[in-house]
Target: Arabinogalactan endo-beta-1,4-galactanase
Amino acid sequence: MKIRRILLPAFAALMALPAQAQQAGQPAPFYFGADLSYVNEMEDCGAIYRKDGQARDPYGLFAEMGTNLVRVRIWHDPEWTNYSDLDDARETIRRARAAGMEVLLDFHYSDDWADGDKQIVPKAWRSIRDDTPALAQAVYDYTFNTLRALDAEGLMPDQVQVGNETNPEMMGEADWKTTRPGINWERNAALFNAGIKAVRDAGAQSSIQPLVMLHIAQPENVEPWFADAWKHGVTDFDLIGVSYYRKWSTQGLDGLEQTITRLRHRYPAEVVVVETAYPFTTDSADNSPNLLGEDSLLPGYPATYEGQRQYMHDLTQRVKFAGGVGVVYWEPAWVSTPCSTRWGQGSNWENATYFDWRRGNEPTPAAYFAKETYQEPAPIQITVRRPQGATGPLWLWGDFLGANDMIVRLSPDASDPTLYRYTTTIRPDSTVRFQVYDQRPFTKGLIQSGDLIQATVSREGLDASYDIAR
Model:
């Protein structure tokens, strides 16, 4: 295969979100989010959030600081608390919408915390835990009915998480990590697909069709999990949610960025860092031990105002460069109050919130991370033209895909079968290398065909066209 290289002038263009996202009410180009699942409880416990010395409504204050997405959790039947049930989630959605923000509803499918270590079946479903069809039906009915109830009040969320940090198999009797190694993917896929179908069916009856997010904790776990999920038929999702806390991850910011890059090229979904946080101090306001301390710090990011602000800026910049579409801060309003949790009086997170108790719960600089200046990724468009009569797919390899063994299958343009296009984004001022093949590469015995092309991507982008001689 002979390629004649033609480089066209750089161009400026905006990358479109997937068709599903555009159909769901034109979401923001980038989500600057906050998980506000604790706010209603904190206010009931006497918390006051201030700006410039004045008490402020927290939802209005977050919107003013640039937040455009509020995440809220929902437990099935949390008898141990009066919060994070349907009534509490309803109140959060109502207040967030009134402040002009979109909402992500996070189904834990548990009566308590579901996370990367444990996924415990709700008490009401315990008797059918091992009856996959019955449990899948329960998941469908609960998800569908919850969304329809919200929609009846004009509170349909814009996005829905089907599960929270679902690294282990969903809905076990105890801690899957210690009692049931591995995942029964026949069961797991049935439960996920039931929840996803419920979101789609509820959205079909609403003016808002929520985007579906699946969520895994820590970047090193995301790719293996999604590979298994996809292999077992879990394919109908719009968003990949990633938790990133350096304390619990083997990856630094480089690893996070590279993971996002690979995910967005490998799956027809957008990527959001849907949980992250960073301490602005290692001090504590109460006797309840804080979860993020010295063991949570990255080199160059001290536990100070500036360290927290710089962490949020740099992480967000890397997410943007990698092609991700959002960053959500976890529990920025879980401040210390006279109330107690099962772990003690106060909060386990006050040193990693956006509010400094030493200054009357005034916002820290990181609270304004949405208003920071960020460099946008540069768009790339690669167009390949084949002679009339040449048929079949082409394959594109590029170092911008994030891994040496990753390729993209190119299909002919619907309006012109001689044209093949691929569009993506990359860090500006980068040099990229790519190669086009007329046979699937990386197969045994294949002799590479096609010239290796190298080009520099300016801040405005790159528009490259190539003719294939045969």
Remarks:
- The chain is about 25% helix and 25% strand.
- The chain has two domains: 3-14+377-468, 36-371.
